[in-house]
Design a protein that fits this description.
The protein has 341 residues and is an alpha/beta fold. It is 38% helix and 15% strand. The protein has 15 helices and eleven strands. Helix 2 packs across helix 3, helix 2 crosses helix 4 and helix 3 crosses helix 5.
Length: 341
């Protein structure tokens, strides 16, 4: 997603102090601060190093300073879910770092630059809707703007008290399913994925958040994975939607992610078409489909010129989330089935 997960920015004075250190210790790939440097000075030095290395930021942060802050905070074991996270971070930034922490930070920073993999994979963690999730190369790094909808309990598109059963298609790490279950305590969530590797990660996150009684995983191809006659009040999905041209132009960081979770044919709509063609069959009356298609939104609208899609526009994302209720899906079934590929 295109927003920062780190709710902290260094002040200009902190950045200047870190970027102008007089004594530095040289490493194979980076110049690191002196041994008595504070956490803020380390963040500033890493910010400059990440910027000069030409890294791509799009897996939890969108700039080198927030990436550096996240790295230092994670190495210091700061828990952003804690009420004390801000005080903990201030302490780390203010004080000189102990040797063991400096060693950890240095190793992570060197790998981030040399390997150009998302920091989330190096840390084995990502933050979504204020919750920490385990991630590795078997799943995409959580960043969906659907998180904003979860935080609002899907209002105004679906009343929270009208959601008893929810389906998360293409669950990946399980972050959407788990976060929704945590946000809506009375809801039962089914979650499907084609990848057994992804489901293993999702199972780990379900256990981490004690959601085993509320979130059920199914392995298989979209709706085919579900028990017969399954129906839901809400279907939420962040399917693969990257078109062929964009797949070829991916920055190095995206090459580390599983292609199965990204690629969706020449126009990015291979999976979206299939979902639209049958979603109504799995929705209860009054049920709602919420589907992310990202930058493929224009292609989707062009593919279905007679279908009046509703698009959710967030302040920090701006496009790519389609919302349709069951009645609209049924009303336009002919067009949706005719173009299902």
């Amino acid at each position: 997603m295109r927003t920062r997960i780190i709710p902290y920015r260094l002040s200009r004075s902190q950045v200047e102090r870190g970027a102008n250190l007089g004594q530095m210790t040289e490493s194979k790939t980076l110049i690191f601060p002196q041994t008595d440097a504070t956490g803020a000075q380390w963040v500033a030095a890493l910010t400059e190093a990440f910027d000069q290395a030409g890294l791509f930021f799009g897996h939890g942060t969108d700039n080198p300073q927030d990436e550096a802050t996240w790295l230092v905070a994670a190495a210091a074991r700061i828990d952003y879910a804690s009420d004390q996270w801000a005080d903990q971070l201030e302490t780390v930034l203010r004080e000189p770092l102990p040797r063991s922490l400096r060693t950890t930070i240095q190793g992570l920073a060197e790998r981030r630059i040399a390997e150009k993999v998302p920091l989330a994979y190096l840390l084995k963690q990502a933050w979504f809707c204020g919750y920490r999730f385990f991630v590795d190369e078997r799943v995409l790094v959580p960043r969906s703007p659907i998180g904003r909808l979860i935080e609002s309990s899907f209002a105004p598109w679906k009343a929270a008290d009208g959601i008893e059963r929810m389906l998360d298609l293409c669950t990946g790490s399980g972050c959407i399913a788990v976060a929704a279950a945590l946000q809506l305590p009375g809801v039962q969530v089914d979650a499907t994925d084609l990848s057994s590797d992804a489901l293993a990660v999702a199972a780990q996150n379900i256990e981490m958040h004690s959601m085993a009684e509320r979130v059920t995983l199914y392995e298989g191809d979209l709706f085919a994975a579900l028990p017969a006659h399954s129906q839901y009040d809400l279907i939420v999905t962040n399917p693969p939607y990257v078109d062929a041209e964009e797949m070829r132009a991916r920055p190095a960081e995206f090459l580390a992610e599983p292609e199965l979770g990204l690629a969706a044919g020449s126009d990015g709509l291979d999976i979206a078409r299939r979902i639209l063609s049958v979603a109504a069959d799995f929705l209860k009356p009054g049920g709602v489909l919420i589907m992310e298609v990202g930058a493929s939104d224009d292609a989707l609208q062009a593919a279905y010129p007679t279908v009046p899609f509703t698009w959710w526009l967030s302040e920090d994302w701006g496009y790519g989330i389609l919302i349709m209720d069951r009645e609209a899906l049924v009303a336009h079934a002919d067009a949706l089935v005719r173009n299902d590929g």
